[in-house]
Amino acid sequence: MRGVLLLLAGLLALVPAWAEAKLSVVATTEHYAAVARTIGGDRVSVTYLARGSQDPHAVLPKRSFSVPLNRADLLIVNGQGLETAWLPTALTESTNNRIREGKPGYLDASTGATLIPYDPAELKASPLVRTLVALQSLALPKAPDVAAANNHHYWLDPANGLAMAKAILDRLSLLDPSNTAFFQANHDRFAATLYEKLLEWDARMRPFEGTAIVSAHRSWTYLARRHGLKIVAYIEPSEPLILSITNVSNPPDRDEKTALIAKMGQSRVKLIVAESYQDPALLQEIARATGASVLALPASVSETDGVDDYFVLFDQIYRKLTQALGAARTLR
Prior knowledge:
The protein is α/β, with parallel strands linked by helices. Among the domains are: 118-148, no CATH class; 205-329, Nitrogenase molybdenum iron protein domain (Rossmann fold, 3-Layer(aba) Sandwich), CATH 3.40.50. The chain has helices at 2-19, 30-40, 66-71, 87-92, 127-139, 160-175, 180-205, 221-227, 254-267, 280-290, 310-329; strands spanning 23-29, 44-50, 74-77, 106-108, 123-124, 212-215, 230-234, 239-240, 271-275, 293-297. The strands form 3 sheets. Strands 2-1-3-4 form a 4-stranded parallel beta sheet. The chain has a 4-stranded parallel beta sheet with strand order 7-6-9-10, with helices on both faces. It has a two-stranded parallel ribbon with strand order 5-8. Strand 6, helix 8 (221-227) and strand 7 (230-234) form a beta-alpha-beta unit. It is globular, with a radius of gyration of 23 Å.
């Protein structure tokens, strides 16, 4: 009898631990981790695979990724091809079937976001690759399509944060319905704050509508569209149709660089916008040849750089961008 009582006491002691079990969330990037942490609060544990200061196209798939992936109840990915150079490799090291594409534990955060299609002429691929992709699109319902490819930097329009947050809310509520009201309240506070910040950021950018800039990569396309900035050229001449570790770096060749410099001169562009991980030597070379300035912006939440949440990220982007756009006016 004494043994039975001890066993019952031990089982009762475990009940609070079961009741308070947290969902384990893994995000591919820090900005999705930040949003998931805000909505999930203390009912989730959140980690990420790629630091915000890294190029998210070119993450080295480490064996250590299998540890958080194997424990995850939910994997949040950017989708739209951003992680294709490394995430499939990382997932092959995981034995967790809950986070496979198509399962409830796999969330593509682009669900509901407003996306910008690539112009097919912007996509770089050999004729063989284009032919294979075209044949795939005829045979498979989810095969890539050159004409239907979307720019995957959609999170850099802050309004898409509303869709991202709603997708995360819905999936957390599906996986842990007992905490739906808690997740909903956190989501509503996030959304209310974001609506207010959008008004503030839009007002700060309104004086610069129509300003011509050059973007290093096609990552600032969404921000430019939102605020009416005119991207007259990209330093990277095209976007790889299918990303791999071998083609994430796509610098212009000599002829492309010459054409870019000439175009910047004709358009009187005095500002180059880039991510903080872009090649500074290349950026400065083009800036010297055109008399332009270079603005390196954070493209993600990065706790190590003091950008520790979604709102701080865009506050910093808009502060630096408006200062640079104002200064560029004096150089024209």
